[in-house]
Design brief:
The protein is of the alpha/beta class and about 210 residues long. The protein has a single domain (about 1-200), classed as TIM Barrel, CATH 3.20.20. The protein contains seven helices and eight strands, in the order βαβαβαβαβαβαβαβ. The protein has helices at about 10-20, 40-45, 65-80, 100-110, 130-140, 160-170, 185-195; strands at about 1-5, 25, 50-55, 85-90, 115-120, 140-145, 175-180, 200. Helix 1 links the parallel strand 1 and strand 2 (about 25). Helix 3 runs parallel beside helix 4. The chain is globular. It is found in: Cytoplasm.
Length: about 210
């Protein structure tokens, strides 16, 4: 079972690596859903030798970004590439909560050769349009989707059915990474029920001494 932890600082990342975490999603301000971390933070975390996915999200709130915010994301991606980051996560939607195809395609191309993950902006897409979004992402070099299977305020056990549907739609096209409310106490049961081999959460391992 591959366990990915969402962390908001170097100290937590270092502790997670010491505890045997498999992969890190690096953010700052997890209380806001995760924003782009500082350059000094990702540079430090890269020295830990653990696979790292860096969040590229310029602000909290919705995922419909204006041109100035997209420019910030572009600059972040260039800097991440310069620093040798191998995986990034981002998501851009339009005002109708559909994938912003033009911006996503541009950012995916700009990110190359870094590997791209779609974060939980996916969950804001209307349910009846998620399958089309999933197929588009799979065809455009996105390798994984992080999803709760519904609004984050909804308990994970209420998302199981929709997560199963999403996993079935993905088949071998793209990885589905369930997260949000998954922790070290419940991940084994949830992973078994969903038939997945990777899980995500800020408490996916016990960080207590």
């Amino acid at each position: 079972m591959l366990k990915e932890i969402a962390v908001g600082n170097f100290a937590t990342a270092k502790l997670a690596v010491a505890k045997g975490i498999d992969r890190i999603e690096l953010n700052q301000h997890l209380e806001l859903g995760g924003l782009t971390p500082n350059r000094s933070t990702w540079q430090a975390v890269l020295t830990l030798g653990c696979p790292v996915v860096v969040m590229v999200r310029p602000r909290a709130g919705n995922f419909n970004y204006n041109s100035a915010e997209v420019a910030v994301m572009e600059a972040t991606l260039r800097t991440l590439k310069e620093d040798g980051v191998q995986m990034v996560t981002f998501g851009v939607l339009n005002a109708q909560l559909q994938l912003d195809i033009k911006t996503m395609q541009h950012l995916i191309q700009l990110a190359a050769p870094m590997r791209v993950v779609m974060h939980m902006a996916f969950d804001a897409i209307p349910v009846d349009q998620q399958a089309d979004a999933l197929h588009w992402l799979a065809k455009h070099q996105v390798e994984r989707i992080l999803t709760h299977g519904g609004p984050l305020k909804q308990p994970i056990d209420k998302s199981i059915q929709h997560l199963k549907e999403t996993i079935n739609q993905a088949q071998d096209q793209i990885e589905i990474l369930p997260g949000g409310g998954i922790n070290f106490n419940n991940y084994v049961q949830l992973a078994r029920e969903l038939g997945v081999e990777q899980v995500h959460g800020s408490q996916i391992i016990d960080l207590n001494p």
